[in-house]
Amino acid sequence: MHACWIRLWQKSPHFNHTNNIDPQVLQKSFVKLTASFPKHLTGAYMVLHTQHAPLCHHLHHIGKTPLQYCPHCPGINETVPHLLLDCPSYCHERHALVTTLGCKASSFPFLLSDPSATQHLICFLNTTQCFRKTFGELPIPSPPQIDAISCLAPRQTPSMACCTM
């Protein structure tokens, strides 16, 4: 049965994308990562993995918004990778990721599948408030211990100076 499911999964249009993020997904790495998460946090991780996040690119695809573009970056699709890695509107929040995770913070697969990135990614999502309407305030799982108070603070509008690193 499992072998049959694996063959079907490998034919799925979502297989290549998911496999690029986490090649070990079939070996239960996603289940292991999210096993202690509350359901809505697991849901948030699932939409990040599948790119069915409440961002304009996906919302446009399902007919919920007229445009797929990032509201901050004209002509650029608002996708999960754009939000996490590129959007200049969130450079201040991204700087916090880079400060704590180093150069690994620019790796989409690392952010979505490595347990050491989990708390910092959730802090990033909470401070950007991009998922708040759909998921509310995402709980910060533990361990490792982090300063949960600092990453729950409301998003401040960053100055563009932070993007000139």
From the structure above, extract its key features.
about 50% helix; about 160 residues; about 5% strand; 2 strands; disordered C terminus; globular; 11 helices; mainly alpha
Fold topology:
Layout lengths: L1 H9 L4 H7 L7 H6 L4 H12 L5 H6 L7 E2 L2 E5 L2 H7 L4 H11 L6 H6 L1 H14 L3 H4 L12 H4 L14
Antiparallel strand pairs: 1-2
What does this structure look like?
The structure is a single chain. The chain contains 11 helices and 2 strands, in the order αααααββαααααα. By secondary structure, the protein is mainly alpha-helical. The chain has a two-stranded antiparallel ribbon with strand order 1-2. A hairpin with a 2-residue loop joins strand 1 and strand 2 (73-77). The chain starts with a helix and ends in a 14-residue tail after the last helix. Mean pLDDT is 81; it is low at 144-149 and 156-165.
